């Protein structure tokens, strides 16, 4: 079975540029989560969706960050304009619609903003 | 400030030795999950504990959830190089969000 698929795996771009990260969750999973991982702050939840609807975006750092889920099989995280401090590994995860269910993570996108 | 504090931050041991990783919080969680993450990959679930005082065993790994559901520990017996990785604990709440600890980096030397 295919797991959570993220693209690209690596992204290097200059500050000020727009960055779009993509995620395909596991089919049938109702919840989708976007995380950011850094050495300093660990794994932080940015936003999560239930049935394609954003439920909690309190972890989104600034208005420069936005996320969408146009359908059950696709989500994007966009940063515009990007800044060097946005450099991190961004993970997408999905889970079934039930309490205490495991979250299944993709392999992440390593983002470097120069 | 991390909601969940993990200790130690780093652990390096010889193959065959035992190790314990701790996860502590002042908050009560509905569940506690442990994940392992290897370089270049996302975290992978090892176990979920939901009942205060619960103990779960997964081969050489033993997981315990504190009676008050605020803390947990992971014990590995006779560690092997394949156990090397970043171990993350995550507290679950009723809104399906997980709060992750900063992680413990475990290195098992052959």
Outline the structure in words.
The complex is a heterodimer of chains A (114) and B (110). Helix content of chain A is 0%, strand content 54%. With 114 residues, chain A is mainly β. The mean pLDDT of chain A is 94. In chain A, the strands form two sheets. In chain A, strands 2, 4, 5, 6, 9, 10 and 11 form a seven-stranded mixed β-sheet that branches. A four-stranded antiparallel β-sheet of chain A has the order 1-3-8-7, with no helix packed on it. The N and C termini of chain A lie far apart (36 Å). The radius of gyration of chain A is 13 Å and the shape is globular. In chain A, a hairpin with a 3-residue loop joins strand 4 and strand 5. Chain A contains no helices and eleven strands. Chain B has 110 residues and is an all-beta fold. In chain B, 0% of the residues lie in helices and 54% in strands. Chain B is globular and about 40 Å long. Chains A and B meet through strand 5, strand 9 and strand 10 of A and strand 5 and strand 10 of B.
Features:
heterodimer, A: 114 residues, mainly beta, seven-stranded mixed β-sheet, four-stranded antiparallel β-sheet, 11 strands, B: 110 residues, six-stranded mixed β-sheet, five-stranded antiparallel β-sheet
């Amino acid at each position: 079975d295919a797991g959570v698929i993220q693209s690209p795996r690596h992204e290097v771009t200059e500050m000020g540029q727009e960055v779009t990260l993509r995620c395909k969750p596991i089919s049938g999973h109702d919840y989708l989560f976007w995380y950011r991982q850094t050495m300093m702050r660990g794994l932080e939840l940015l936003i999560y969706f239930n049935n394609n609807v954003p439920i909690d975006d309190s972890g989104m750092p600034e208005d420069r960050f936005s996320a969408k889920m146009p359908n059950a099989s696709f989500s994007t995280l966009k940063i515009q304009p990007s800044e060097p401090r946005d450099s991190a590994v961004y993970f997408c995860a999905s889970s079934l619609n039930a309490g205490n269910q495991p979250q299944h993570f993709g392999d992440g996108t390593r983002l470097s903003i120069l | 400030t991390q909601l969940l504090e993990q200790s130690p931050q780093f652990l390096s041991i010889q193959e065959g030795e035992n190790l314990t990783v701790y996860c502590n919080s002042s908050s009560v969680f509905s569940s506690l999950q442990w994940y392992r993450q290897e370089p270049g990959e996302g975290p992978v679930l090892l176990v979920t504990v939901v009942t205060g005082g619960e103990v779960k065993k997964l081969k050489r790994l033993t997981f315990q959830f504190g009676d008050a559901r605020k803390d947990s520990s992971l014990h590995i017996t006779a560690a092997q190089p394949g156990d090397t990785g970043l171990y993350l604990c995550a507290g679950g709440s009723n809104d399906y969000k997980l709060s992750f600890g900063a992680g413990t980096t475990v290195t098992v030397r052959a």
